[in-house]
Amino acid sequence: MKHVYGVILLAMAAAMVVPAQSISINVNCNNGQSLNRVLSRLERQVAVTVTVTGTCSEFVQVAGFDNLTLRGAAGASITQPAATANTLPVAVLAIGASRSVTVSGLAIQATGTAGPSAIGIGHGSSDIRLMNLQATGGSAGIVVYENSQVLLSHVTVQNSGYASFALFDSSDAHVEHCLFEDTTGTTWHTGIFAGAAHVTMFDDTIRDFQVGIFAGSGAIVDTVAYTTYTPSGGPTDVVIDGPAGNTYNGVQLSAGASLNLSSRLVINGVGQTWGGTTGGILVSDGAALSAANGSLAITGSYGQGVLVENNAHATLTGASITGSGHGGVVAVNGANVAVAPGGSLTLVGGNAVDLFCDASSRIVGGANLAGVPTLQCANLAASVATLP
């Protein structure tokens, strides 16, 4: 009898560890079905694939899911409903406290530029993958917060309020093959806004924002090609341009933030003709720019090329900064710029003034500059100091 009980208990234990089968569900919002209602009734810890058809005019919440796939059929969309409650959700599609969630093939639209974001990801969510999406409108197109982690791949974000993509609170994002664009011609808009967060990116275009990338409060932005999600090969440049003429800064770094360039950052036609602090890259208030060999090209800035100020620092290796309407490389208010040796010389030429520094700032590594740049800098050293 004990042997029989043992066999029964063993069989029960084996049944308990058999993984639940994944579930596939179709939701057709054009036939009156509600995506949010379907999600609210699903088991959170079972792998589920939901295929969405039609236009879902509703706020959608993904809360506490583990291994969920939301897939849009051709033309599927989620739009902010016309009638809203007094207290609006943070986003039209809100993902919170979830893990391993993939959203693909959908167009997600928020109304206006001051209300809910199109997509919000928060509450410690991880392995959230946004792929082949379009997000439009909202105070932010996509916002990530509260120590969450997300991938953006082949995502287009247009015409949002203060930022196309914003992330905060020690959140982390990988951004690849994406387009961030403002076509409204209005102000004030930022392509990527990072506050106390980390962004790794390659093969992205950021177009016609007042600031292409803003990083503050110790945020870190890295440009580097990686193969974690997609195979290697193809373009890797991050391109920031301002063909509409309303871009003030391609990149703005402040309050201890850093920009580390491994893959190339290309900045074209930004800044304003009156100069000031506008231009390609503004590094201020203890922030740092590190451009590895050949990883930075700034062309035709209407303002400055690279402006470093207020105890900030920049290292340029094999960079190209040409055709700026004001300064090429400018260091003021206790700033330091190092032109480091590398596989190629740094080209700073064809600017109104190629190298400029005030009495409290310095530029070192003049021997690593190509050609004969024009100077307004008494504190220019030929070489970078060699440590003992």
Structure, described:
This protein is mainly beta and 388 residues long. The chain has 2 domains: 20-161; 210-388. Helices cover 6% and strands 47% of the residues. The chain is built from 2 helices and 38 strands. It has a 25-stranded parallel beta sheet that branches. β1, α2 and β2 (48-53) form a beta-alpha-beta unit. The radius of gyration is 25 Å and the shape is elongated. The relative contact order is 0.06. The model is unreliable at 1-19 (pLDDT under 50).
Task: Describe the structure concisely for a colleague.
The protein is mainly beta. Helix content is 6%, strand content 47%.
User: What percent of residues are in strands?
Assistant: over 45%
Uncertain segments are 1-19
Number of helical regions: 2
Distance between the termini: 81 Å
* Topology, number of strands: 38
Largest sheet: 25 strands, parallel
Shape: elongated
- Overall pLDDT confidence: 94
Radius of gyration, in Å, reads 25 Å
**Helix fraction by DSSP (H/I, runs of at least 4):** under 10%
**Into how many domains do the coordinates divide?**
2
Structural class: mainly beta
Please outline the helices and strands.
Blueprint: H1 2-17, E1 23-28, H2 35-40, E2 48-53, E3 55-57, E4 60-63, E5 66-72, E6 77-79, E7 91-96, E8 99-104, E9 107-109, E10 117-122, E11 126-136, E12 140-144, E13 149-158, E14 163-167, E15 172-176, E16 179-181, E17 190-195, E18 198-202, E19 204-207, E20 211-216, E21 220-223, E22 238-241, E23 249-253, E24 258-261, E25 265-268, E26 279-283, E27 288-291, E28 296-299, E29 304-309, E30 313-316, E31 320-322, E32 327-332, E33 336-339, E34 347-349, E35 353-357, E36 362-364, E37 375-376, E38 380-381
Parallel strand pairs: 1-2, 2-5, 3-6, 4-7, 5-8, 6-9, 7-10, 8-11, 9-11, 10-12, 11-13, 12-14, 13-15, 13-16, 14-17, 15-18, 16-19, 17-20, 18-21, 19-22, 20-23, 21-24, 22-25, 23-26, 24-27, 25-28, 26-29, 27-30, 28-31, 29-32, 30-33, 31-34, 32-35, 33-36, 35-37, 36-38
